[in-house]
Amino acid sequence: MARIVLPKKFKSAYPHKFAQGKKRFLCGRRIQPRPISGKESLPDLIENAFLAYNAARLHEACRLFTEKMLASDVTIGMSLAGALTPAGIGSSVLVPLIEAGFVDWIVATGANLYHDMHHAMNLPLYKGSPFVRDPELRQVGVVRIYDILLDYNDVLMRTDDVLRKVLSQPEFQKEMGTAELHYLLGKYCDEFERQTRRPRVSLLAAAYRAGVPCFCSSPGDSTIGMNVAGLELRGNACKVNPSIDVNQSTAIVLDAQLGKRRTAAVLVGGGSPKNFMLQTEPQIQEVLRIQEFGHEFFLQFTDARPDTGGLSGATPHEAVSWGKVDVTKLPDAIVCYLDSTVALPILTHYALARHRPRKLKRLYHKLPALTERLTREYFRNNP
After folding, report:
1. Do the domain assignments include residue 149?
2. pLDDT, tens digit, for every residue of 261-278?
3. Cα separation of 90 and 204, whole Å?
4. What pLDDT does residue 18 have?
5. What is the CATH number of the domain that holds 305?
6. Which domain holds residue 170?
7. 324 is a catalytic site residue
């Protein structure tokens, strides 16, 4: 084989064809990863091999969350859509994030909070197959969430029975927002963990212990809401007022902004929880008439396309037009088109490995004072 010596300098055949300034584009990290050995830690693997496409977006998401969002002056909200807690994401991911102070407030679908109760009560869910015959499952009393299988009587009906007993207790006999509803449920889930001797399995229990408010943007759209409605037919006085949620969630963001602190939105999936978290900024600007510029940090994991017009796929650039995201902070806005059950455990591992725990903000216990401040600001700007 002939030996060919690589030239030290290439003489272009088109020296005058291209404009100057290419170096501002060709200045990123060179793509030349080391061969994977199998001995790398997960953060090292991400740094070395996640260099392009959605792997690169996940790499950027991990660094954005860990290096910027976890600063002590940032209030982090997380929205949760999709069946995450049935898949074990509550105990494997959300509980550690809450305990480390990496999540300050949550907006979740009611289903995520309802199915979380199965784990608190030590009621089993099983790995299965998405290809089983659903008529046969119905016949034998098995419920399917894609490839997760659970018993209709011993899990669903048993959870409902316990839930109704809890909702009938004296502390629930009043009007409240969903943050208070889930805080009270979390107290019982914390007790269920102790009774079953299985700690750190429940999102609601962890949020209760850490004082993390858990809002539900559509409280009637879940089995918790269904049981609240069913008990109302029997004269139960528990009533959920969504206006309380709107004001309390907005008060969290407003207090941070008035205190010259920053806010971050971590959006796991899309749907109603995503909108509810982001609408705090239009609420401040349009309704309270307070000048504001949007969240400083935006991070979303989604599989939804933006071109269908749905909120789940709406980009941070579109959110700028609504005032939901600060236009000057778009470099700190990342959308990663990846299944949340893949992305979220990786993000959590990276953050816990690379950042020490933060002091808990315990925002739930501050909600009355925060809402009072919001009220004062509302009347000051709307005389």
Report:
1. yes
2. 999 999 999 889 999 999
3. 9
4. 75
5. 3.40.910.10
6. 51-381
7. yes
